[in-house]
Amino acid sequence: MNKVFVFSKKLKTILMAGAGAGLVLALAGYFVGTIDGHRFWANVLLNGFMIIGLCLGAGFFVAVHLIAESGWQTSVQRIAEAMASKIWLGAIMMLLILLGVHSLYHWSHTEHLDHILQMKKAYLNMPFFIIRMLVYLGGWIFLLHNIRKVSLMSDNNPDIKLFNRLRTLSGLFIVFFAITSSTSAWDWLMSIDAHWFSTLYGWYTFIGMFVNSIAVIIIFLVVLQKMGYMDHVNDEHLHDLGKYLFGFSIFWAYLWISQYLLIWYSNIPEETTYYVTRVKGFETLFYVNVLVCFVAPFFALMARGNKRRTDWLLIVSLIVFVGHWIDLFIAIMPGAVGAEKAHIGLFEIGLTILYVSVFAWFVFKALTKGNLVPENHPYFKESFDYENIK
User: Fold this and answer.
1) What are phi and psi of 299, to 5 degrees?
2) Rounded to whole angstroms, how far apart are CA atoms 283 and 150?
């Protein structure tokens, strides 16, 4: 098996071409279209949050399996680690929104606050917003960097103490992430519609991150296999990744419908306005979101055999990835831009391609820093000695 990934010139050229094409499309959309400050910064937030969500979801994937002393995932663990280690890149992308905060959050205009926003001012104010952001990003970077660092150290040192240290770091990350995944979602997404709130919002945002990260782990895995790497990954590993994508897409739908039905049933104007805005202004995307994020993976992966087919998993993962981009679009655009000005054009497509290409470049670069196969992991051999129940 190929243990070390080589970042080939061909792959670099493809990613550079993707980034260049994305930049050209974004610039064309900006200068040809009607891109005001609200739409510009809303797209910066959308793509920045998507990238940092992929890093955090991958970090959660690594940490939760280390705590549970799971064995099967060690075959793909290095892909998730590489994604999580780029949390600093996601942090930079998120810090950019501070330059356009007044175009995103109307609570930041302190001279125009109504009574409700005045009551929330103790939490929704710029100094505290920035402090919380720095705490989130600093904590995530510190913990995920050290998880990656200790994991790579194990390539040359089979000492069980390194594994125990990984479990300790993972436990700290899970506790910190359990709190900050919700509070960051409140700060960066929910506060766009500052008069509205949902107690399910943190959970809903987290599961979107996690499902999307599973889809991207599968995409990276399939790409690496087509390049001649990761030949140790067999049908059983693919099956488990497929089950994750299938199962957590259902859980995403459960939280989506739970939040929707609670608000629909109570029929309180202050709460229903969130969905009224999205159903009336973004009706097509609103329902496409459910079809792509839930219906498509549900039926595509229901059959056992489909979870074991590489190309099929790749297609479904790409569909899910697009679906969760749409999910973020619907979460951000109605409040930040408005139905009249928000739509998917050259700028949205180009900026997304640019961000994804840059992220992929750094992930592939991270994969060159250590072995693709963590052979000194205490459960690595176990990952080949199991079979999914038929």
Assistant:
1) -80, -30
2) 47
- The helix/strand count (H/E) of the chain reads as 15, 0
CB 144 within 8 A of CB 173: yes
Question: Got the DSSP string for 331-363?
Answer: HHHHHHT-TTT----HHHHHHHHHHHHHHHHHH
Neighbours of 372 (CB within 10 A): 23
Question: Are 178 and 60 a contacting pair, CB within 8 Å?
Answer: no
Burial 17-45 (b: 16+ CB within 10 A, else e): ebbeebbebbeebbeeeebeebbbbbbbb
Residue type, 35: I
Burial class (CB within 10 angstroms; exposed 0-12, middle 13-18, buried 19+) of 238:
buried
Query: What are 173-212's pLDDT values in tens digits?
Result: 999 999 999 999 999 999 999 999 999 999 999 999 999 9
CB 87 within 8 A of CB 59: yes
pLDDT in tens, 57-99: 999 999 999 999 888 899 999 999 999 999 999 999 999 999 9
The enclosing H or E element of 375 equals none
Other residues' Cβ atoms within 10 Å of the Cβ of residue 284: 7
CA angle 313, 144, 86 (to 5 degrees): 60
Q: Please tell me the distance from the alpha carbon of residue 18 to that of residue 351, in angstroms, as a whole number.
A: 11
Q: Where are the domains of the chain?
A: 9-373
